Amino acid sequence: MNTSLDCLVCFLRQALDAARMISSDVMVQEQIMREVMAWTARMDLGAPPPVVGQRIHRRLRELTGVKDPYQAVKDQGNRMALALLPDLEASVAKARDPLDMALRLALAGNVIDMGVNSSVSPADLSAAVGQAMTASIQGPLEEFRKTAAEAHTILYLADNAGEIVFDRLLIAQLGPERMTVAVRGGPVINDATLADAEAAGLDQMVRVIDNGSDAPGTLLHDCSETFRRHFESADLIVAKGQGNFETLSREAHTLFFLFKVKCPVIASHVGFPVGTHVLTTPRTESRPTATQEKGGA
Questions:
Q1: Does domain 71-293 have CATH number 3.40.50.10880?
Q2: Which of 5, 24, 54, 112 is deepest in the core (most CB within 10 A)?
């Protein structure tokens, strides 16, 4: 998807939040803000938003000399999610529709997003789980079931640290033996990397690769050849989070996006209000007529 004018305001807010979190030096904060304002004045609005996100966070790492500024935040996210994992697994096990419940809980984990929220507490995470138990999933759930059942190979594009613990529930339902999970190739915001996947125990249940890119989404031209081979050959691709939607919404693949709508720009693209739990595809992205699917524990 293209970058909206509304995204420009979000870039500045995200850059300021990140600069303040990473450095207490007002001069560093001012420098990054001035640079981001200059970039946004010249940027190609035909490019997806994660292009600028990648540039902002690369510059923050350069200015501070910190390889992974969000590492402590990511570690906390993984710890919070792992503490909930036994109860979450029990919820899936006793659900009348385990796949529906796993989808709901994978969506609940999408709240752990430092690109949108400056902080996420255990209470926030518990509230997201409670909401996911009752909220409807908007999208072609039955089409997803059928496609997943027929797929021989599945590529799962992960999103954030902490969230990847919740993804374990859906991965278990879809079949780890036929799946590859892809994480980011380098640190950016609190997006999951190989180290985060290992901390979350994801590597113990499924094959995990990185995509070779440090963009907060999936910019295929910036990804490794190995990742692109997996992408092209997969029978089914499941993409978590808004960043993956922003970068892949025009791809002609058997691809399902799974995320919570967190901003008005995305809401206008999918046709559902902010806060909605969405399962959508590139084919339905511009046609907001998804059938409401109901389920529960």
A1: yes
A2: 112
